[in-house]
Amino acid sequence: MKKFFTILVGIVCLLSARTVKAQSFAVRTNIAEWALMAPNVGVDLVLSDRSTLNISVGATAGENYIKDAFIQYGMVEYRYWFSHQPYENFFLGLQFRPLHYRLHVDHSGKKGLTHNGAAFPVGFNFGYCWPLNSKFNLELCYGAGWYFYNNECSLNGSSHNIDFSTTNIGLSIAYILK
């Protein structure tokens, strides 16, 4: 799975290298995910006056709120900014956020159940960005879309399904490099 994310990020970076404005990008992190003990980091590349490409990765780090949980993900998101400049005001995004998970949980008094699988959420993201100063921004966003997932449970076997749900809740800080 690590190779998949590395290759995905590499391909997106290479494909966008020709369209990115010189020295127009930002480094970001989602504070809401840090609060859930899931460290993450991302890069935003400015593609035009009204569009950016966000590439992020994250994973749970050891002990967290769900015992024995391991989740790793990557995210690629294209954002259209309604202002004439990226990183200001409202935006609408289209995101793809593949993830792999392994959870060891208790169900209805039955101990030792393990869920192992992969999910491929695809959806829309809507948000607002406040410039704090010339280098820092604060962003609030919400995403919803479809989850295509494969789950293997030690009790029920494997299942494949499609659900509509929240794909992203974010409170992010971005540092703009120019």
Topology:
Layout: H1 2-16, E1 25-30, H2 31-35, E2 40-46, E3 51-59, E4 69-81, E5 89-96, E6 99-107, E7 110-131, E8 136-153, E9 157-177
Antiparallel strand pairs: 1-2, 1-9, 2-3, 3-4, 4-5, 4-6, 5-7, 6-7, 7-8, 8-9
Task: Describe the 3D structure.
This protein has 178 residues and is mainly beta. 11% of the residues lie in helices and 63% in strands. Strands 1, 2, 3, 4, 5, 6, 7, 8 and 9 form a nine-stranded antiparallel beta sheet that branches. A hairpin with a 4-residue loop joins strand 7 (110-131) and strand 8. The radius of gyration is 18 Å and the shape is elongated. 21% of the residues are buried. Mean pLDDT is 81; it is low at 17-22.
Label this structure with key terms.
178 residues
N-to-C CA distance: 33 Å
Query: Helix fraction?
Result: 10-25%
Indicate the structural class. mainly beta
Mean pLDDT: 81
Number of DSSP strand runs: 9
Number of helices: 2
Radius of gyration: 18 Å
Strand content: over 45%
Biggest sheet descriptor: 9 strands, antiparallel
Helix-strand topology string = HEHEEEEEEEE
Unreliable stretches: 17-22
Shape: elongated
Oligomer: single chain
